[in-house]
Automatic annotation (TrEMBL):
Principal location: endoplasmic reticulum
A GO CC term attached to the entry: membrane
Record's protein name: alpha-1,2-Mannosidase
Signal peptide bounds: 1-33
Organism lineage: Eukaryota, Viridiplantae, Streptophyta, Embryophyta, Tracheophyta
GO biological process: carbohydrate metabolic process; endoplasmic reticulum mannose trimming
Keywords, comma-separated and alphabetical: Calcium, Endoplasmic reticulum, Glycoprotein, Glycosidase, Hydrolase, Metal-binding, Signal
Record has tRNA processing as a keyword: no
Highest taxon of the lineage: Eukaryota
Cofactor needs: Ca(2+)
Active site: E126 (proton donor), D266, E359 (proton donor), E380
Length: 547
């Protein structure tokens, strides 16, 4: 759960307008992309690959099997559960880079050595996106001949681990609202003194991983509880169709009524759209439509976003926080590209000002927000840069990526990996490297340059389309996972249910019977046959990324 923050209340509209006009002055003029040759793009891609191995090899040498690396002191630390977090979070990045040897060895080690019957209290949110997502993504790659990365000796060990872990998380959902507790002990369940307050993102960012697990194991309970959690949050929205940041999971009362697209709420929006794209469940699309329209109406002060009171719509916090930077990428996925371009320009102007993105940038003072001066190697701006280049093929986004790469190499590289930046103005390094640096930050940067070089990876050239989880894990849209063969983009009004493509056969698909989701009374999903339809071919997204 994200910590509570002190807020500025009732920020006057006139002051906000003046501040945002001043903030707009940060934006650069019309950018002229330098462009890159294919050879230059390959050089940049290879530099990112070297970046990955500098950090990954540092972790394996100095920290493994502890959770994370301390890259300045070259030591390890257990930060989540003590089960080789960084290795599990990095599995599909190894696969993406085509490193069959290390991917195979890592999968084998995890299958033999990781167990979750441990007396550890963990974050439900972080455990889901990092560990459960990492296990499922690696399983789907390792078990499938079509990916070219099938491990001959693999026998669903990671899937069994994922199912065991999810079972241990299930008691967290036993609340009157259906919204889970924020933390749980993997051995003993929810502590009687556990806080009843959780974040909206914590309760609304579980559907992809749990939904896939239901389809792979024929155990519908995983999808049921996570969908009920989303319903529990959405049913308590305000009359403006806004949700707050923190909620009491027993009473359903909002304990922090600030609505925004960043801290504590961000991936709630993300998983609404992605759950629809992955599963074809139109209930998620409907909620996303309503939530997105409200966000654009009440939170959007073009090109920035602010936080408002969920009931009145009054601005309470004129702040750009770094987690907002995922939003342009989500807009690209939804097909709403023009505002994504403007907002990305604004967010990148903050990076250019400091060389990194601070956790908080105050739009009223045009300065780093006190107490939010750090850059913990977050991927969100890079993620949106990748999606915008994929949508537009505008080479100014390669220039953005080159700038980000240079900042990381110059300011964040340290002896055994890459360091958090504790202050974006002084560039002081901090002895910590989150696992998401290898799961997301490096992954999106590598994908960006590989796309410019002429892509050669399973995402761009493989047998499936992929949804990226909020942790950057690769989730393939296969007939084993998808429910329907047609869906339409809300923005583009573009439908076509006949675009069929062949898919490879997953080894695990022959072992696990597909659940009959039409029998679930409390999960309203469209009925229909499991087709080989390309799930993205019917979205307006396809008009931008497959020209």
């Amino acid at each position: 759960m994200q910590p509570m923050r002190r807020r500025q209340r009732g920020f006057p509209l006139l002051c906000l307008s003046t501040a945002l006009l001043a903030a707009a002055a940060l934006l650069p003029g019309a950018a002229v992309a330098e462009g890159v040759t294919p050879s230059e793009a390959r050089r940049l891609r290879d530099e990112v690959k070297d970046m990955f191995y500098h950090a990954f090899d540092g972790y394996m040498k100095y920290a493994f099997p502890l959770d994370e690396l301390r890259p300045l002191s070259c030591q390890g630390e257990d930060s989540l559960g003590g089960y080789a977090l960084t290795l599990i979070d990095s599995l599909d990045t190894l696969a993406l880079l085509g490193d069959k040897e290390k991917f195979g060895a890592a999968v084998e080690w995890v299958g033999k050595n990781v167990r979750f019957d441990i007396n550890k209290t963990v974050s439900v949110f972080e455990t889901n996106i990092r560990i459960l997502g990492g296990l499922l993504s690696a399983h789907l790659i390792a078990s499938d001949y079509a990916t070219g990365l099938r491990i001959q000796s693999y026998d669903d060990q990671l899937l069994h681990l994922a199912a065991d872990l999810a079972q241990r998380l299930l008691p967290a959902f036993d609340t009157p609202t259906g919204i889970p507790f924020g933390s749980i002990n993997l051995k003993y369940g929810v502590d009687e003194n556990e806080s009843k307050i959780t974040s909206t993102a914590g309760g609304g960012t579980l559907t992809l991983e749990f939904g896939i697990l239901s389809r792979l194991t024929n155990n519908t309970v995983f999808e049921r509880v996570t969908k009920n959690s989303v319903r529990g949050i959405w049913s308590r929205r305000s009359k403006l169709n806004l949700v707050g940041a923190h909620i009491n999971v027993f009473t359903g009362e909002w304990t922090q009524k600030d609505a925004g697209i960043g801290t504590s709420i961000d991936s709630f929006y993300e998983y609404l759209l992605k759950a629809y794209l992955l599963f074809g469940d139109e209930e998620y699309l409907y909620i996303f439509q309503e939530a997105y329209k409200a966000a654009m109406h009440y939170l959007h002060h073009d090109p920035w976003y602010v936080e408002v009171n969920m009931n009145s719509g009054a601005t309470v916090w004129p702040l750009f926080n770094s987690l907002q930077a995922f939003w342009p990428g989500l807009q690209v996925l939804a097909g709403d590209v023009d505002p994504a371009i403007r907002t990305h320009d604004a967010f990148f102007s903050v990076w250019k000002k400091y060389g990194f993105t601070p956790e908080g940038f105050n739009l009223a003072t045009l300065a780093v927000q006190n107490g939010q001066r750090s850059y913990p190697l977050r991927p969100e701006l890079i993620e949106s840069t990748y999606w915008l280049f994929k949508a537009t093929r505008d080479y100014r986004y390669i220039d953005v990526g080159r700038d980000i790469l240079a900042s990381l190499q110059y300011g964040a590289r340290c002896p055994c990996g890459y360091c958090h930046i504790s202050d974006v103005e002084t560039h002081k390094q901090d002895d910590h490297m989150e696992s998401f640096f290898l799961a997301e930050t490096v992954k999106y940067l590598w994908l960006l340059f590989d796309l410019a070089a002429g892509p050669d990876n399973i995402v761009e050239n493989g047998p499936y389309k992929y949804i990226f989880s909020t942790e950057g894990h690769l989730l393939p849209v296969t007939r084993e996972i998808a429910l329907v063969d047609e869906h339409c983009s809300y923005f583009g009004a573009f439908c076509n249910g006949s675009a069929n493509r062949g898919y490879g056969t997953s080894a695990s698909s022959t072992k696990h019977k597909k659940p009959n989701y039409t029998q679930l009374d409390d999960i309203q999903t469209p009925s229909g046959h499991y087709s080989a339809s390309n799930m993205f071919a019917t979205s307006s997204y396809i008009k931008f990324v497959q020209d």
